[in-house]
Amino acid sequence: MGCRRRAPQHELVRIVRRVEGSLEVGRTLEGRGAWLCAGSTACLTAAARRNAFARAFRAPVSQAAIDRLELAFVPESPVRETGTPVTTGRDDEGAG
After folding, report:
1. What is the mean pLDDT of residues 5-16?
2. Strands (E), 1-96
3. pLDDT the model gives residue 74
4. Residues 6+ apart with CB under 8 A from 61
5. Would you give the DSSP letter of residue 25?
6. What is the pLDDT of residue 57?
7. C-alpha to C-alpha distance for 56 and 29, rounded to whole angstroms
8. Most buried by CB count within 10 Å: which residue of 9, 30, 42, 89?
9. Buried b (16+ CB within 10 A) or exposed e, 70-91
């Protein structure tokens, strides 16, 4: 929706507008959905700039709702279920 790129479903996230106007991410949530590239703030920004959310949901979407959604898209450091950071696969520790 944002960048208009075609991608496999596993590379996309579904955004749904709730009745109260908030936006949520979820593949199985009820209601009209819009698809964005997973984790791509550029795709989200392009959709917001083009007013694509309001057209996709056929309802107004506030800038505050888009801002909250953008916070959810900001990539954080990956954390395992145990709470320890996930390594990048490079073992720099103990090298010598």
Report:
1. 91
2. 12-17, 23-25, 33-37
3. 67
4. 17, 21, 23, 53, 54
5. E
6. 94
7. 15
8. 42
9. eeebeeeeeeeeeeeeeeeeee
Select from 9, 50, 63, 49 the least CA-distant residue to 33: 9
CA pair distance 1, 21, nearest whole angstrom: 19
Q: Chain-centre distance of CA 50, in angstroms?
A: 17
Partners of 23 in the beta sheet?
Answer: 17
How many whole angstroms from its chain centre is CA 86? 21
Of 17 and 72, more confident: 17
The identity of residue 84, as a single letter, is T
